[in-house]
Amino acid sequence: MERVIQFLERHLLPVVEVIAQQRHLQALRDGVVSTVPLLLIGSFFLICAFPPISFLAMLVDPYVSDLLTVVNATFGIMGLVASFSIAYALASSYAIDSLSSGLLSVSAFILASPFTKEGHIDSGLMGSKGLFVAMIIGLLVVEVQRFMIKKNIIIKMPEGVPLSVGRSFAVLLPGVVILVSIFIINVMLARIGGGSISEVINRAVTAPLLHLGGTLPAVLIAVFAIQLLWFFGIHGQALVGTGVMAPIWLAFTQQNAVAKIAGEAVPNIICQQFIDAFILIGGSGTTLALAVLLFTTVKSNQLKALGKMSILPGFFNINEPITFGMPIVMNPIMMIPFIMAPLLCVITTFVFMASGIVDKPYVLAPWTTPAFVSGFLVTGDWKGAALQVLNFFIAGIIYYPFLKIWDENKMKEEQEQMNA
């Protein structure tokens, strides 16, 4: 085990640190995450429109279409908002005019999308269907803008001109180059029957990524990576969960909400709620069960104190007191259950939802929503809460023998300190 850890420290961690600092990945992460507040608001109105209790459903039935307008104004513009926020985040990292980059990206994103036969913007492409198009457009717009600024291919206004006016003229040439280029490429693609830029990106990038990211093996690999990075003290959820997988999982979230609104079957098992509500119970590592065991079963004074301190944050899915206080970071004994528990919960949850025993999630709840409540909220099914209870006990069974070993070690340390 020691050799494995040394090997990973020497060869894996430097690569991970480089990836974590990569500005384009940071911009994608920050830009996509900025859409989450809108999705949470939309989810609240989605619950109101489709309450999981039949009496309430009858009560709100006359107002469903009104409530869904808010859902459409939040879930339905996920891609449009991301096109702005991704460009804004990347431009900020380059210290260039982030506001103009964001606005230019929105215009480019809309232009890259096919219009309706009547010449109107296709609102169906402004949500998750346009998310990956927004990601690519947002990054390209800023890179073109940065290149032209670096080569001094911009209009500079004389001193004394207000800053806002100067910014407007500075973005003029990059804006013309970007929009004209997209227009010409779109016309050429239309002439050869290739569709539009948006359709090409969706065929070449979006469809394969969604197909791959929605599979059980892909989720197991992602969760394994999250747990392994946490073992080395790196925030795996922020790097892998939010930084890499969030665009895919949030796209599935939006698809599920759209299907629910349309009265269709919810299509996706894997989505952001699958991870937040059913796997990260208590935080990365499914550690709520460990917090309860620390509070109720250990004999070491240090671990008893840790249990008292960590159980309340654990109910809100915050587990830093455990990961750094126990510690789990760089602890080979606790590494095994810390990785195994969430992986088994992934399999359990997937099986129960794939078999139809538990409904698939369609509402996004804040990640701090307490366990045994969030399962009911995101699925509208009481069996969602029951599945969380099952995952809680599975994690507890996995953690228990390893915790006993660690407890005995800590008791020996405390006894030696008392005898010294």
Characterization of the model:
With 420 residues, this protein is mainly α. The chain has 2 domains: 1-213, no CATH class; 218-419, no CATH class. It has helices at 2-21, 23-33, 36-49, 54-60, 64-72, 78-94, 98-112, 131-150, 163-170, 172-191, 197-213, 216-231, 236-261, 272-279, 288-296, 301-315, 320-325, 332-354, 374-379, 382-419. It is globular and about 80 Å long. The two termini are 31 Å apart. Its main location: membrane. Keywords: Cell membrane, Membrane, Sugar transport, Transmembrane, Transmembrane helix, Transport. It is found in: Cell membrane. The chain crosses the membrane at residues 38-60, 67-88, 94-111, 131-149, 169-189, 209-230, 236-253, 274-295, 333-354, 385-403.
N- to C-terminal distance:
31 Å
Strand content: under 5%
Report mean pLDDT, rounded to a whole number: 89
Largest sheet: none
Q: Using only CA atoms, what is the Rg?
A: 25 Å
Helix-strand pattern:
HHHHHHHHHHHHHHHHHHHH
Number of discrete helical segments: 20
Structural class: mainly alpha
Uncertain stretches of 5 or more adjacent residues: none
- Shape type: globular
How many β-strand stretches? 0
Overall helicity: over 70%
Overall tally of domains: 2
